[in-house]
Amino acid sequence: MMIYKDAAKSVTERTEDLLKQMTMEEKIGQLVQPFGWKVYENAEGQINLTEEFRRQVHKGGIGSLYGVLRADPWTEVTIENGLSPELGAGAVNEIQRYAIQHSRLGIPILFGEECSHGHMAIGATVFPVPLLIGSTWNTELYSKMCRAVALETRSQGGAVTYSPVLDVVRDPRWGRTEECFGEDPYLIGEFAVASVKGLQGDSLDQQTSVAATLKHFAGYGSSEGGRNAGPVHMGMRELREVDLYPFRRAVEAGAASIMPAYNEIDGTPCTSNKELLKDILRTEWGFDGMVITDCGAINMLAWGHDTAEDGLSAAAQAITAGIDMEMSGEMFAKYLGEAVETGRVDIEVLDQAVRRVLTLKFRLGLFDHPYCDPKKAGEVIGSAAHKRLARQVAAEGIIMLKNEGQALPLSRTNGVIAVIGPNADQAYNQLGDYTSPQPDGAVTTVLDGIKAKLADHPERVLYAPGCRIQGDSREGFEAALACAAQADTVLLVLGGSSARDFGEGTIDLRTGASVVTDTWNDMDCGEGIDRMTLTLSGVQLQLAQEIHKLGKKLIVIYINGRPITEPWLDAHADAILEAWYPGQEGGHAAADVLFGDVNPSGRLTVSIPKHVGQLPVHYRGKRSRGRRYLEEDSKPMYPFGYGLSYTSFTYSDLRLSASEMYIEDTVEAEVIVKNTGDCRGAEVVQLYISDAASLYTRPKLELKGFRKVELEPGEERRITFPIGRGELEYVGADYKRVVEPGLFHIRIGRHVDDTLTTELTVLEG
């Protein structure tokens, strides 16, 4: 038996044995990743492999396939022509079997899939988007969700996922804000660790684990003007302290793969940035996993960034800088052979990239267990347990921003509720970007959720859409106002849409019935959909203003992928819930919160400005950022960490275990938190630290710890946080992490603007 086929041998032994047997063409084949949905045809359940795929396998093999199971308008894979969970697993097996049996060395294919908030395949559970997940402040719950996503993905043969997204949001006009956890690197770092643990499990070779790919490395959330993939203007100290921090934490947790960002930083594209991909990632952090480009990123070096004169130079730049695999491009396949033959790329550079790809495949167990079980896929994908989990995540991440006069929770026993708005009953509008097509009934809308709560009294629920997300048509206003006039409470479901055109059509604004058209698309958020403003699109605000004139109790629910800035609604609505994109169970989750079955415990992870002109408005601004504008101060409408509850909490007795400590010591900060209301609730206790003086300028405040705790009425609990080097250090001289002696302010409280404060002196020792 050849060494690489012997499961008893080590991964290193097997990798080196296989590598030395490979031809140049076979090596290059391992570094390319074509579009997976193009390698097969689905003929009424019969999977036929394309001739081009067969040719590539015979020629030198294919290292990986991207999105074999991906379904969306971009891939043109639909419910009708796509693959069910069982059929999808069978198709992956067919592809894998052909690759193993018809390539010279029988190297299995690595199947890469999109799983940002659920596997992007037909039938898979659609969880809430990461912006809502961050709002839960519950990393254990998120890790559990990641285990479910990994199980659904691996059961169909997907072995690597292109998530989590660890970008730090700096300009929420950016359309990909919804894919991120928030604006704070510490919080993102905690979710990064939870993601890696959840996705990768105890061992990558388990059939319940997938390799995590950290993206987008780095600075992607800080682009110029909030425009996708725009230049990033950032110094190395800020880059290391803010944007690189979550990636470092995830690498330390054992992440198997990483994806550079499209953008440039200070003139150097991330795809060809040796300092980023070698000096920091490999040498400083010790990362030994695989680096894969974003889709078409190498092309951008020659046709976009223009740092390469042609495809040959682009390919050479990328692999020399540390790229191991090219996602869905042709530069490696076309030019790597020539680059090596002409001396542009050293053969050892090529071998090192191949070595990393093969190592990951061996770690995933693909050589020993290359096939999945279609029966298992049918059992676990979209299971009842995963739906319950999706509902729980959504409910924990919904944030109550306002509740004047205890407008919420709603009564189950009396009153008529008018559910109005473009997002009240549009399933795709609550799912977010990177979502597969959904069969009828798979998504519970807010209207569905309200009806389910009042199933015994359907006459108490009225509905009218009122308007679309976009456009200036008011043709639905009359029906919406007539509906609202009959109600005691108006539930106005507004926001945005990241729904690409799934061919579902728009809605009749008078009746709410579905109308299939060729022009439907209300998308105002998502990848590539960046905005100049943060106001509601279309005539949604005008609809709210007209309804408000009726004098009804007005409850607003936002379903959206980025913060909304509407001061009029902040002032005039009786209650406001921010639900982000809550996923397929979002309607049930929203109803759970609205009727008080779930006490809202979501907290903001992005600051919501009063006006777009305040940007950037994130809480980690420097002390020197200035005070105010002529028209308005610089404070947000709703600060980082903010969120209301149906109960109330008090904080008292903040103390440290010692008021002084040496640099290498640790102290504990503790505070008493008490539920002073009349119902059970969860509070997010937040620790912030401020360095009174430092050699290099620092943010005014930095989140350094958080705990989500549930308390019964009258119950109090002492919450403790350790404070040591990790909580006090920053990037100092020569970009080294350092703790400077001196005075630190320790703050614990409900959100960044509501804390108790004490002082800690750090001594040199």
Automatic annotation (TrEMBL):
Task: Extract one GO molecular function annotation from the record.
Answer: hydrolase activity
Source organism phylogeny = Bacteria, Bacillati, Bacillota, Bacilli, Bacillales
One Pfam family of this chain: Glyco_hydro_3
Write down what this protein is called. Glycoside hydrolase family 3 N-terminal domain-containing protein
Task: Show the SMART domains listed in the entry.
Answer: Fn3_like (SM01217)
Presence of keyword Cytoplasm: no
Q: Which residues form the Fibronectin type III-like domain?
A: 683-752
Supply the alphabetized keyword list.
Answer: Hydrolase
